[in-house]
Amino acid sequence: MKEERINPSLWTTTAHGRRFPVLPGDVTVDVVVIGGGIAGLTTAWLLKKAGKKVAVLEMNRILTGQTGQTTAHLTELLDTPYDTLRSDFGERGARMAAASSRASIEQIASIVKELNIDCGFQRLPLYRYAETDAQLRELEKEITAAQEAGLMVRFTRDTPLPLPVKGALRLEDQAQFHPRQYLLALAERIEGDGCYIFEDTRVVDVQDGTPCRAVTDRGTVTAGDVVEATHSPLNRVFMQTKVYPYRSYAVAGPLEGPLEQCLYYDSQDPYHYIRTQRVDGVNYVIVGGEDHKVGTEEDTEQHFAALEAYTLRCLPVSKLTHRWSGQVIEPADGLAYIGRNSASHHTWVATGFSGTGMTWGTLAGMIISDLILGRQNPYAALYDATRVKVRAGAKDFIQENAEVAFRFVADRLSRPDGHALSEVAPGEGKILEVSGQKVAVYREEGGACHAVSPVCTHLGCHVHWNNAERSWDCPCHGARFSPTGKVLNGPAVKDLASKKLPPEASTSSDGETP
């Protein structure tokens, strides 16, 4: 059975790169980077420029993970309000968060200019708007805090959107681009001169030491340093207590009326985000939102339906041509975790990018490359991956980890979705109880069934079916698996175990009907 993403993004359908080879066996380099998204490729490029020999390892194809599922806003306005950052990290911390986000945008602009990359990079203003009096009061607080953090922000009564608003925050000099066009061009410059990109190469173990080793299903890469730029670090148990996985949805369609090119955010919970992008001669409007915790929704398809209805109702578009979803990793205290991993000497991590993955992913490359090269980085201390902020995010930390503990027990005791294969419709997945054991069963459109263990290979929670993406999703730490149990998202590194179905299903030893 061929595994394919059923909801490809606008970026993956409008920018196609060449294939890179698989790891041919054991390789030795200066630095091995795990993950072929924006954080991994930016890190690799900056290290190569500094003279390091680098190998990038990607378990699928580069840019098909979360970087390929972004909406690609480049902004200093973070998901965590500056008022909250000022309270938790102090006035200097809030100013440094703003300055680091500006530095990452300028880093992207510099690379675009240096390499002459045609990716639609464009500077433009951002609006965050309020539609109720309560939202307006919160917005006014954020404007004051953002101004004190050094952002070029002001209050306005109007926005270019065809929507009535109570008021809006306007932030100057933000940006947008086509992320795959940008990063495919960067990947071409990384390979060569003793540097490599290897696709379809899954890392199964990371061994910190002198030297370090990244053990894969195709060989071992030995290096002085290892960078885990995998969105969710591989089997880092302590780190998993500080980051929380969410799904976010997006739709896009040809723009059919006037809409000024800006970045737009409403103040709802969860919020919507809107922008435009010209791709292949077509002006698209892109709308995202409907965020929820991974693996906790019984009907994920409803989120696409709600987002599509919102877009068609509020914006000058009558047809939506693309829809996709992506994984968002929320940090416990509101800032990404970037730097040396706990209890490690030469292993570096980058995670918790929240909804600003393009900005913080670039920042991760800047910070980690500097640290590996022995350079001072002004933002490294703020984003230190080993930090534990007892006060900041304490409520979320307790609630999120209590939910993990609850899920670990409750899913084992919960009633199955059914007991017979006949209860699983084509294109559907269900947890069945067969001969006293729970089995995750998926039926192809053609009728063939696949059975795997529902036990996530990360830390043992039970997976849930995601009907919008046709995947098995773990609600504890966000690991996701294909209908046949192949790893789609970390922190898991092992596939779900195959299970045999009852004899009447005529299954082969790998759980797949012949």
TrEMBL record:
One GO cellular component term of this record is: cytoplasm
Span list, region Disordered: 492-514
Q: Where is the composition biased (Polar residues)?
A: 505-514
| UniProt key word Isomerase | no
Q: Name one GO molecular function term.
A: metal ion binding
Keyword Cytoplasm appears in the UniProt entry: no
* Residues making up the signal peptide according to the UniProt record: none
Q: Which Pfam families match?
A: DAO, Rieske
Question: What InterPro entries is this protein classified in?
Answer: FAD-dep_OxRdtase, FAD/NAD-bd_sf, Rieske_2Fe-2S, Rieske_2Fe-2S_sf, Rieske_Fe-S_prot_C, YhfW_C
Q: Where is the Rieske domain?
A: 416-498
| Record keywords, A-Z | 2Fe-2S, Disulfide bond, Iron, Iron-sulfur, Metal-binding
Q: What is this protein called?
A: Glycine/D-amino acid oxidase
Source organism of this protein record: Stigmatella aurantiaca
